[in-house]
Design brief:
The chain is α+β, with helices and mostly antiparallel strands and 803 residues long. It has 16 helices and 40 strands. The strands form 13 sheets. Strands 11, 12, 14, 16 and 17 form a 5-stranded antiparallel β-sheet that branches. α2 crosses α13, α4 packs across α7 and α6 packs antiparallel against α7. It starts with a helix and ends with a strand.
Length: 803
């Protein structure tokens, strides 16, 4: 009697649970955060699963030098894949995330059967509906449009949709690792296994290793995508096949070997409840209490924590023990995840690698291409199309005169020759597109970015060491002025791949500038060196260059007498103990570009002071001081293209550079830059304004103009004080703080198909994108040479134009 009552109670409970499943909307699969984390793990630039790296593929075959960090419509490729993982769970798409591999059915809910996850993933182009079209076939269509559209905005939008769609198909495959989604178990309040991943104590997705047995490998030429879901090998009666076969669908594996909360030993033949044959007790001592688990020992995967038994389990008759079992337990979830999550990662990674398995190798000749199939599948019944990008980023179709049709192109076989009519206005780059059959996939698409044989700009950065230093490491970057893009990000100049590429290139550039002349006063020791401008010098921006007038007898209030030498202050210039240097420091050079509207170009530092008063020191004892000379100042740095940047501080004319006046009597807080005559000479060479090295660097060829100018500085806070009456004691340094160096750059790389003679290159301005890469190259040179961020060295910038 007691058993019958208990049986009725359990049956009533099951009815209530069943009713709740019927009238509550089925919930999502793996939580969206988990899906995003899986897609992020797969797409990571350092990820390599089954010998495939999306990051490297994008660089090598599509010319996207930033790889997965390439942005389309403001977001990176990696983020679009994550976005797709999240968007696939929007209402009502998640109703189509189920697949029973035994009857190939999707979810039946409220008397309606929805497409299975596999069928949903393979829906025809444009047929998924109002929530958006993001099937496998839609992804293929977006990809083709992204490769072939004329305007850049359309290409960007379709690249974004491509990666979002691939991310959404990856999501569908990942759902096949959730038992509830392969066992027709709707879960309106959320699946317990899925929710477990939101527990903060759950291991990070990145901690799960993906083994070779964790995913379906491409073992034949059949269309892989449906097989990732279900291969048809498991028919509901042969669970052993799900662990013995090396090519089993993920839904088959999950359905046959795991339980969901609503299908514990019911609804399906397997997993089967046969004590001592398929399951056995596995008691655990947790917190000094025995917790009883069931261990799966047969019919496929062996699982230590297969289900947890309730306290009535041992008291129930054999036929009813299953009623007192549950899977909502941390140990059960963790044990399931050890098997299922690596497969979720591995199987869904195959969506990405299969989508981009089309690989083309190209050798470009004069009006022809030799194309080799570098894929693992044969190309048949397809078509080659060739497009070119002009300097404005517009993509246009090239006329192929022979070789467009592909009857059969075997993997690694002989290349197919394509002949074409070169574009009349020149090409910045080409894109070769294959569309057709690849293996057994009839609507495959593959692209290959081909850089045009245009001239490239190679910029090398070296650092000149101070006394006792030998700095040998250099950095290098390569810029393509034809499409205004980075060809090679800054790397070590000694990089093997770069050297192999560079050694076969021909240098084509000529010097853009003649000899550089310092147009400011310099190195005055016992007199005055005048500024000598060429009489015919004309400048676009006169304000950038301050003529220093000769004045051998300045007014008394502009003189400073130090050790018997008379020194002239010019336009609020700053004196530093000898050798005496003056601002403005101006440099100019003749421009050698044929037909240049500017005959000269220059570079300078301008010094502006808000207050300037005279001061006379007599170099004999007792010291006599008449007046104080100090005030705010700003140093502004100019290139031919305008202001590069500025540096402001507080100046003190005698013996100092910058200081802050303290409130105490005869107490000074001074920030000071010493020169080579000072005991701190070693320090100044490490810390002061850089000497600007080769201050103007430029090359030109028939179609390219390239130049670069850089200045660096490190500011220093130094506190000193003087005390007592004249003659003052030597200053005492109480603290010194160096700040990280600042690097300012103006650079340019102009391409003109029609030639550069007569181009007004100054009005073109500096290239901000190239500036950023050159700054990165300068900083890399410091890193390669082991120099800290608050030190400075003279940077030598070398520009070469190669082809």
């Amino acid at each position: 009697m007691k058993i019958n009552i208990m049986k009725k109670m359990f049956n009533l409970l099951l009815i209530i649970i069943s009713i709740s499943f019927i009238y509550v909307t089925p919930n999502l699969a793996l939580e969206t955060a988990t899906h995003r984390a899986i897609n992020k793990r797969i797409a990571d630039k350092n990820s390599m699963i089954d010998q495939f790296s999306l990051h490297q593929y994008l660089i090598k075959y599509l010319g996207m030098q930033d790889g997965v960090d390439t942005k389309f419509n403001y977001f990176s490729i990696g983020l679009w894949l994550e976005f797709g993982a999240e968007e696939e769970d929007t209402t009502p798409r998640y109703l189509r995330h189920f697949l029973n591999p035994i009857n190939n059915q999707g979810l039946t809910w409220n008397s309606k059967t929805y497409p299975s996850a596999r069928d949903w993933a393979l829906m025809p182009v444009g047929s998924q509906g109002f929530t958006g079209n993001f099937s496998w076939n839609d992804a293929r269509q977006y990809y083709y449009t992204a490769l072939t559209s004329a305007d850049k905005a359309t290409r960007e939008t379709n690249f974004a949709k491509t990666f979002q769609a691939v991310g959404q198909v990856m999501h569908l495959v990942q759902d096949m690792s959730v038992p509830a989604h392969t066992r027709s178990n709707s879960h309106g309040s959320g699946d317990v296994y899925e929710r477990w991943f939101l527990n903060p104590d759950v291991p990070l997705i990145s901690s799960y290793s993906v083994k070779s047995t964790s995913y379906f490998t491409i073992a034949d030429s059949s269309l892989l995508i449906p097989n990732l879901f279900d291969t048809g090998q498991y028919d509901g009666s042969n669970p052993g096949i799900t662990t013995s076969s090396s090519s089993i669908g993920l839904a088959e594996y999950t359905n046959a070997n795991f339980l969901s909360a609503g299908t514990i030993f019911k609804g399906f033949t397997y997993p089967a409840y046969s004590p001592g044959i398929t399951v056995t007790e596995n008691p655990e001592n947790i917190g000094n209490k025995e917790v009883l688990y069931l261990k799966k020992i047969g019919d496929g995967e062996a699982i230590n924590y297969f289900a947890r038994a309730g306290r009535f389990y041992r008291k129930l008759p054999a036929d009813y023990k299953a009623l007192e079992l549950m899977v909502d337990d941390n140990k059960v979830h963790e044990n399931y995840a050890q098997f299922l999550l690596p497969r979720a990662i591995g199987y869904s990674s195959q969506v990405l690698s299969y989508f981009f398995r089309g690989q083309l190798e190209v050798e470009m000749g004069d009006g022809n291409l030799k194309v080799k199939n570098a894929s693992t599948d044969i190309m048949t019944g397809g078509t080659f199309e060739l497009y070119y990008d002009n300097a404005n980023g517009e993509r246009n179709k090239v006329t192929i005169t022979d070789g467009a049709a592909v009857s059969s192109l075997a993997p690694g076989g002989n290349p197919q020759t394509i002949t074409f009519t070169p574009p009349p206005d020149g090409a910045a780059s080409y894109m070769l597109v294959y569309s057709g059959t690849l293996g057994n996939e009839t609507n495959a698409v593959a692209g290959k970015f081909i850089p045009a044989e245009n001239e490239l700009v190679v910029i090398t950065v070296a650092l000149n060491g101070i006394a006792g230093e030998t700095l040998t490491k250099k950095s290098v970057l390569v810029w393509n002025p034809a499409n205004n893009s980075l060809q090679q990000a800054p790397i070590d100049y000694e990089n093997t791949a770069f050297q192999k590429w560079f050694t076969v290139r021909k240098q084509t550039g000529n010097d853009l500038y003649g000899q550089i002349i310092n147009a400011g006063l310099s190195n005055i020791v016992d007199g005055i060196t005048p500024c000598n401008y060429p009489p015919d010098m004309t400048l676009t921006n006169e304000a950038h260059f301050e003529r220093v007038e000769e004045n051998l007898d300045p007014p008394q209030d502009q003189r400073i007498i130090i050790s018997g030498y008379m020194i002239i202050n010019v336009y609020g210039s700053q004196n530093i103990y000898g050798p005496y240097q003056y601002y403005p420091q101006s440099y100019y050079a003749p421009v050698l570009l044929p037909g240049s509207p500017e005959q000269y170009a220059g570079f300078r530092i301008k010094h502006d002071a808000t207050e300037y008063r005279s001061e006379i020191w007599w170099y004999d004892e007792p010291w006599v001081s008449e007046g104080i000379d100090n005030g705010d100042f700003t140093d502004t740095f100019y290139s031919p293209f305008g202001i590069m940047g500025s540096f402001s501080g507080w100046s003190h004319a005698v013996g100092g550079d910058v200081f802050n006046h303290d409130s105490g009597p005869i107490n000074w807080n001074i920030r000071k830059i010493y020169d080579v005559a000072n005991p701190y000479a070693y320090d100044v060479n490490r810390k002061k304004y850089a000497d600007m090295g080769q201050k103007m660097n430029g090359k030109f060829s028939e179609n390219v103009i390239a130049n670069a100018m850089a200045i660096q500085y490190v500011s220093r806070d130094e506190t000193q004080y003087y005390s007592g009456d004249p003659p003052y004691a030597d200053p005492v340094v109480t603290s010194r703080t160096y700040h990280d160096r600042i690097v300012l750059v103006h650079s340019q790389a102009i391409f003109r198909e029609e030639g550069i003679s007569g181009v007004n290159w100054i009005t073109e301005g500096n290239n901000i994108a190239l500036d950023a890469q050159l700054i990165e190259a300068i900083e890399m040179a410091y890193t390669l040479n082991g120099i800290s961020a608050n030190e400075i060295r003279e940077a030598s910038i070398s520009i070469q134009i190669v082809k």
